[in-house]
Amino acid sequence: MGRYQRGHVFERHGAFHIRYYDSEIIDGQPRRVQRSERLCSKDNRHYSIGCKPVQQLAAKFMEKVNAASGAVAEPDIKITGSGTPRTFRISSGQQRQQQPMGIGKSGNSISRASLRHSA
User: Fold this and answer.
1) pTM score
2) Is residue 77 classed exposed, middle or buried when 0-12, 13-18 and 19+ CB atoms within 10 A define those classes?
3) How many domains does the chain have?
């Protein structure tokens, strides 16, 4: 199974291109090679790397690349129950717990009253 990729959009020679990795068999061994494809010309609608139309073209192109490699995007996990629902991105199998407000990394509790009287 391939890796899920977002690609890297860059500008060269008045056009926007996207860079990504692909697997190829070279000398009988599978190797990852870097590729780039032209997305579009730079014009009034496609004026910068970060503009929405360029990002949409990049996302559409990378969907095809990821579908061909068999990669699937990791789903977001929705956590509810603390008033407002929050969405966290879980990567590489490690889950991070959000610390409640007022508790530091050492686990010591900080009260609002001690903050007021510390000055």
Assistant:
1) 0.55
2) exposed
3) 1
